[in-house]
Amino acid sequence: MKRFKVFSNKSYKTIFDLESGIEIITGINGKPDPFCLELPSLLDIGIMGSCDRKCPFCYQGHENKPNMSLANFKLIIDQVKHNVNQVALGGRGDPNKHESFKEILKYCRKNYIVPNYTTSGLNLTDEEVEISKLCGAVAVSDYSQDHTYEALRKFISAGIKTNIHKIFSKSTYNECLQIVSGYNPWRKIVFQKGVNYQIDLAKINAIIFLLFKPQGAGKNIDLVPSSFQIQRFAELIYKSQAQCKVGLDSCLVNHTVKYVELTPAQKMTVDTCEGARMSGYISSDLKFMPCSFSNKNMAVQITGKNLKEVWKNGHPFKSFRKTLKETPACCPISF
Questions:
Q1: What span, in angstroms and rounded, lies between the C-alpha atoms of 331 and 142?
Q2: What is the DSSP letter of 62?
Q3: Which of 29, 96, 210, 265 is the most buried (most CB within 10 A)?
Q4: Is 72 part of any domain?
Q5: Contact in structure between 21 and 136 (CB atoms under 8 Å)
Q6: Domain range spanning residue 129?
Q7: What tens digit of pLDDT does each residue of 267-314 get?
Q8: Radius of gyration of the chain (CA)
């Protein structure tokens, strides 16, 4: 199996390492590095249509729709396989519970696309862990419950690159500060098959902090962090003392960079919003939008449509790009 996937047109080239996940995007033929790609290199695909957990902070809301069919997933991949290097599987619910989970991961790899996904870890089976070895990485959402620890333990034991997703909000602010100051909140002892076990952060790939989005079910609760909280977090995160690598979603980056002066190295690795430029989202009911947090007014139904044409000329995508061109460190949805 080849290790590097290369795509080029007249203006730019992408080089992607299928093993490490390192991606290089560079302008060619005298052109600058591209502001926007002709199709995303990262595609977020919401294969799940419903979830019975009904978390009060879920940005996806509590709608119940069918899961994306395997046939529709394949149709998407067939259109984007030359451009897309990674897919992030998501939607409402745990992607590992999709009825065609194994086939979805295999089809990605067959087309030289690296699949990744986020799960709550609830009722995670050994079979799901085994097939997850096809992924570049998995992420476990931090619910600080037994199933959180058990999922982390299973993925780590299987040698899978594992991240922890931690929501940064008004209520988690203190703990997030503690984490980047060196504290490990996942040191809880788990009794598993007669062995005391605790999560060693040295075995975690990274902790990713995600900005709380007041959308979907989250519109009904007051968890938006204050400017002071974001500033204090920004002062610590870029000088992190955490016990493993840390990262931020671009939504949180947009806020934190207002309060710190990044080093040259950080400027090369810290990205603001890439929605409608390098990445996009497709929901389980085949609506294409700039990012998974976009509202319904920014969605284009793609049934029977050409994805490249929608990406290039769809009004939501053009509008999103226009906003980001004028103000790079912003959120066009105003989160």
A1: 25
A2: S
A3: 96
A4: yes
A5: yes
A6: 4-326
A7: 888 889 999 999 999 999 999 999 998 877 899 999 999 999 999 999
A8: 19
Pairing verdict, β 114-119 and 86-92: parallel
Q: Considering the domain boundaries, does residue 188 fall inside one?
A: yes
In 3-state terms, what secondary structure has residue 159? coil
The DSSP symbol for 2 reads -
> What angle is formed at CA 207 by the lines to CA 206 and CA 210, rounded to 5 degrees?
135
Distance CA 155, CA 174 (A): 27
**φ and ψ at residue 72, rounded to 5 degrees:** -70, -35
- The domain total for the chain is 1
287-289/279-282 β-pairing: antiparallel
Amino acid (1-letter code) at residue 48: M
Identity of residue 214: P
193: domain CATH number? 3.20.20.70
Nearest to 4 by CA among 14, 20, 16: 16
Flag whether 332 is in a domain.
no
**pLDDT tens readout for residues 264-273:** 988 888 889 9
The whole-angstrom separation of Cα 63 and Cα 44 is 19
